[in-house]
Design goal:
heterodimer; B: alpha/beta; D-Maltodextrin-Binding Protein, domain 2; 2 domains; 11 helices; transport (chain A); transmembrane transporter activity (chain A)
């Protein structure tokens, strides 16, 4: 097996290796292309994550409301709907099926649809984590809120959620990294992200090994950066005395 | 201790490489009484019917080649082992000796010639434009401002990019994850035109719900010689393969195969593809050669 890393300096139209590995005057090299693909991967991931965090937090919280059986059932239905269908299938439903029902959506870019697909898929998983985080708290905490005369909203705002969110950070880290990895399905609806770049560039250059290695490295790097950021947040937001295993000081 | 392990590992690696470089496929076939044939599971020129059964124009032609090789070697019995390959793994599998000959829809181009050898060109693919019959698009010039779909991981993407620059067109490009997906985009109106190998377009149209609603229009965007791929630096085996191809062209076997797979109803659905022999393929048969794609020019 011989390596040829120069493939990244090749122009995507003439296939010639230029002086610089970045194209000039509108020429695009495979390196330029890969970095732009990486940008798409990161954009899809961050936007999906935003949707997932907001919706996941809301729905997860609603699922634990006392005396609101219908809201809890709706929340449960949401979670079961989105986590029981494979992500790739959901992406196709968003792209091919929903626009067939609502023609106005045909004009919507694949990028937007895939962000919603991954965002909603992940929101179900985050909702489940938020719910279990809240339910993991001792029952006494809720009673404490009621005892001081808080409304339900205040109990959640000042007592339950601040604790619950902090104890679910480790599973949230995995979920955030999963969003980055799951963003690879975006290629299926024409988003020019890393996986699509890899499939296309390996066909054009016949240097599949180098292309896939570089793309793998970028995925690993992206997920690892997320992991580091989340670990930092986890350390800073640790509840003293609650998570004993992480070396708390008591 | 560790050093010893390292040395052992390196020598094993070196031995492996040396073995892989022992390029005498004919001797290998003779001594083992078997040959590994790389085939495609779903392409215009070769596909599977399931249960390990592989058919298609190039698959059957490859079988003919291997029977000729068997005759040449004087083997009473030779086993053909079918190994499905994909665009991603075909070159490594040919290089490392897993596959002795691959006949599918591999384009012979200069980039690949660095890694593998190619037999005589047996099919010349033309990249064409498929549109809805009522779209009013008749050629490249009508593509300005339209949305075009092509399939990820194909050379058509490159062709499209080159044409975009050469003709100064502005169009939106979307990519399907496979040919069926790309065709679906044309079908559902997400794209105005599907740019792809003519045989793939014709096959997709023939299998669609309403074949008469689509047509292949306009000029040929690119021509690509398709050939069987072999290991590099094995002239004896390449000659045996090329001789067999020349024989099949001469006695009409190849023309009959073409008629069988492109002009007659084919399994599994017994639908005709209906793609007449192109002038470019005919020219390749008239003067057998192994020229790469870069030496082809688009005939006006």
């Amino acid at each position: 097996m011989s390596w040829d890393w120069q493939v990244f300096c090749q122009d995507t139209i003439t296939q010639e290796v230029g002086q610089s590995c970045f194209g000039k005057n509108g020429d695009i090299t495979y390196l330029d292309w890969m970095l732009s693909a990486w940008g798409w991967t990161v954009s899809v991931s961050l936007l999906s994550l935003l949707i997932a965090l907001i919706l996941g937090a809301i729905i997860g919280t609603l699922r634990t409301l006392p005396d609101r059986p219908w809201i809890v059932r709706l929340g449960n239905a949401w979670v079961e709907l989105f986590r029981n269908i494979p992500l790739l299938v959901q992406v196709f439903v968003w792209y091919h099926v929903i626009p067939a029902i609502f023609p106005a959506l045909k004009r919507v870019d694949g990028f937007v649809l895939v962000v919603f697909a991954i965002g909603l898929f992940t929101s179900a998983r985050i909702a489940e984590q938020v719910r279990s985080g809240i339910q993991a708290l001792p029952r006494g905490q809720r009673y404490a809120g009621m005892a001081v005369g808080f409304t339900t909203f205040q109990t959640y705002r000042y007592v339950l959620l601040p604790m619950a969110f902090r104890i679910i950070i480790p599973p949230l880290t995995s979920e955030t990294m999963n969003v980055f990895k799951n963003s690879s399905v975006a290629f299926a609806v024409s988003v020019a992200e890393l996986t699509m770049f890899a499939m296309q560039a390996q066909e054009e250059t016949a240097r599949g090994v180098e292309v896939y290695l570089a793309v793998t490295a970028l995925y690993v790097f992206s997920a690892f950066v997320v992991n580091r950021i989340m670990t930092f947040i986890e350390k800073r937001s640790r509840v003293p005395g609650l998570i004993a295993a992480s070396g708390g000081g008591h | 201790m560790k050093k010893h392990l390292m040395v052992a590992a390196i020598s094993v690696l070196a031995a492996g490489t040396a073995f892989a470089q022992a390029n005498d496929t004919l001797a290998k076939i003779k001594s083992s009484g078997a040959v590994t044939f790389g085939v495609r599971e779903s392409s215009g020129l070769g596909y599977t019917l399931g249960n390990g059964k592989y058919v298609g124009f190039h698959t059957e032609m490859g079988e003919n080649i291997l029977h000729d090789v068997q005759k040449q070697l004087g083997l009473a019995k030779m086993e053909i082992k079918y190994q499905p390959v994909t665009s991603q793994n075909r070159i490594p599998l040919v290089q490392n000796g897993t596959v002795d000959i691959e006949c599918g829809s591999t384009t012979n181009n200069l980039a690949r010639q660095k890694d593998a050898a190619f037999a005589y060109t047996t099919y010349v693919e033309e990249v064409r434009i498929a549109v809805k019959a009522n779209s009013g698009i008749t050629g490249i010039k009508d593509l300005n401002g339209k949305t075009l779909v092509t399939t990820t991981g194909t050379t058509s993407v490159q062709t499209l990019r080159k044409n975009k620059r050469a003709d100064g067109l502005t169009f939106k490009e979307v990519m399907g994850k496979d040919h069926a997906d790309s065709f679906l985009m044309l079908e559902t109106g997400r794209a105005d035109a599907f740019i792809m190998d003519g045989s793939i377009l014709a096959a997709n149209i023939s299998k669609s719900k309403a074949p008469s609603e689509y047509k292949i229009v306009g000029e040929v965007l690119s021509v690509e010689p398709i050939a069987c791929m072999l290991r590099k630096d094995d002239p004896a085996f390449k000659k045996a393969v090329d001789d067999s191809i020349a024989r099949q062209i001469k006695d009409g076997t190849l023309a009959k195969l073409y008629d069988k797979w492109f002009m007659q109803p084919i399994p599994p659905n017994n639908v005709k593809i209906g793609l007449p022999l192109s002038a470019a393929t005919k020219a390749a048969w008239d003067a057998p050669n192994d020229k790469p794609m870069e030496e082809y020019k688009i005939a006006d």
